Automatic annotation (TrEMBL):
Protein family membership: Belongs to the LysR transcriptional regulatory family.
Keyword vocabulary terms for this entry: Activator, DNA-binding, Transcription, Transcription regulation
Xref: SUPFAM superfamilies: Periplasmic binding protein-like II, Winged helix' DNA-binding domain
Name of this chain's protein: LysR family transcriptional regulator
PANTHER family: NITROGEN ASSIMILATION REGULATORY PROTEIN NAC, TRANSCRIPTIONAL REGULATORY PROTEIN NAC-RELATED
Upper taxonomic lineage: Bacteria, Pseudomonadati, Pseudomonadota, Betaproteobacteria, Burkholderiales
Gene3D superfamilies xref list: 3.40.190.290, Winged helix-like DNA-binding domain superfamily/Winged helix DNA-binding domain (1.10.10.10)
Domain HTH lysR-type: 1-58
């Protein structure tokens, strides 16, 4: 197999049809069909299931797609590294940003990347830690913010910050802003989204402490979550930096959780299977400088 075949294969998989892939690649469809047939013959297995509305990767096709994306990414980065002057950071850099940090991190990071490394073309992708880690392993991201598990050392990762998880509650429920003990969370009507890993962690901690939380429901979208809390009926949990920024000027107050404290470590990790280009090295440096102070 060659690079052209892999590019054709990826385009077909991403577009879902040979005709759409041909238009995207600016090639005639018979050439695309011939390249796909040759690739399937070489590998000895069908790569797509054909249907009336298009094509879908088979199990073998899905496996090849993961490898093909990583291979093409390496080739693109090698080309960018060679074409650069070796002392200039340039080219696209794909960066995973935590869902909980995105509202306060994306704009400052993008702006600083463009200011300090104008040759870089940042592509910021928002997601939860586990999903970002998977995309990093598949070579779909160059760098990603990740939350370390309590037993994970992360020795090869660059430390960003440790953040406290706080209760966000209407001022009328708060009694000031002193820390709230974990068992006292049972007294608050909580909105906890099962889609948010942070909220899942709280539920696991509460279960370990044999606490019965008063869960009223959940909303994944943070802006909507805070709007509901502002009605005075609900409380929720957010990382301290995000909570402080988003509740400024509202009727909500932020209280740290104590006894036991509830916190997590956030790092930036590079794709383990790809060499770091000058652009990735520069982006990682700027990420550490920006996010450690912004979030």
């Amino acid at each position: 197999m060659d690079v052209k075949q892999l590019r054709y294969f990826v385009a077909i998989a991403q577009q879902g049809s040979l005709s759409a892939a041909a238009r995207r690649l600016h090639v005639v469809q018979p050439a695309l069909s011939q390249a796909l047939a040759a690739l399937e013959t070489e590998l000895g297995t069908p790569l797509f299931t054909r249907g009336p509305t298009g094509v879908v990767p088979t199990t073998s096709g899905t496996e090849l797609l993961h490898h093909a994306l990583a291979i093409l990414r390496q080739i693109d980065r090698a080309r960018a590294a060679i074409q650069s002057t070796l002392d200039t950071a340039s080219g696209p850099v794909r960066i995973g940003i935590l869902h909980s940090a995105a509202p306060v991190a994306c704009a400052p990071l993008f702006t600083r990347l463009r200011q300090e490394a104008p040759g870089i073309q940042p592509q910021l992708v928002v997601g939860y830690s586990d999903a970002l880690a998977q995309r990093l392993r598949r070579g779909e991201l160059d760098l990603a913010m990740l939350v370390l598990a309590s037993d994970e050392r992360g020795e090869s990762d660059a430390h960003l910050y440790e953040e406290n998880i706080c209760l966000v509650t209407p001022a009328s429920h708060a009694g000031g802003t002193p820390p709230v003990e974990l068992p006292s969370l049972q007294d608050f009507p909580l909105l906890l989204s099962m889609a948010q890993p942070l909220h899942q962690s709280l539920l696991a901690l509460a279960q370990a402490q044999k606490l019965r939380l008063n869960i009223m429901g959940g909303v994944e979208d943070i802006s909507s979550l805070l709007l509901l809390c502002e009605t005075g009926q609900f409380s929720t949990l957010l990382p301290e930096g995000l909570a402080g920024t988003l509740t400024r000027g509202t009727s909500l107050v932020v209280r740290r959780i104590a006894h036991p404290a509830f916190s997590r470590r956030v790092v930036v990790r590079a794709c383990p299977d790809l060499p770091k280009s000058h652009a990735v090295i520069a982006a990682e440096r700027i990420m550490k400088a920006t996010l450690a102070s912004q979030v």
